[in-house]
Amino acid sequence: IKEKYGFKSFMDSKETLKGKMCEQDGIGLVSKVVPRDVFRRKNDIRVKDHPEMIGECDIDLGEKINEIEDIKCSWDLSTFIKVAEWPEAYFAQGQVYMELYNREKFSLHYCLVDTPEELIDREVRKAFYAYGGMGNQDPIYMEEYLQAEAEIRGNHIVSHIDPKLRVKTFEFTRDQSYIDEIKYRVKYMRDLLPQISLTSKEIVYND
User: Fold this and answer.
1) What per-residue confidence (pLDDT) applies to 131?
2) DSSP H stretches of helix in 102-138
3) N or C: at which end does the chain have fewer Cβ atoms within 10 angstroms?
């Protein structure tokens, strides 16, 4: 639908917004907990000279260290603690980055940092309206709302926690056979694309 009809998804989720807003905080936290021999800085070089791949990693540690990194900032305490293993999609993303930047190691860092105040305020406003807003003056409801506000802030203000407990790192090495499979599948799906329409009920895959 993007290729044929120009569909674009423009709504950022709260989790995505935090990730964008807190990327530098995440880099700073990782620099404390997972030190390297070079200064970490946000990469802004997007590599797109490969016919099957395009990408922009968060951090390129350079040829000497031969490693690239990506930073994921968790939404709150609950989402961070649930990170037990790396998603398959991020393994694929790491392999693509290693191909694009010609590196042999990829590190995925999940970080728990304070949520920006404007995002916390959004959640607090939701709670406020859920308890009736300005139209509800019942002291019991107001007490429950104030408790909810305190809990929301407690879930999102986390900088008092030991930094070592606020980073989870997953490391991958380059797998050229996996990368070659990605390239094959991209070509295959491009060949398949003309068969897909808005009314398609089933796509037949022929190996």
Assistant:
1) 75
2) 117-130
3) C
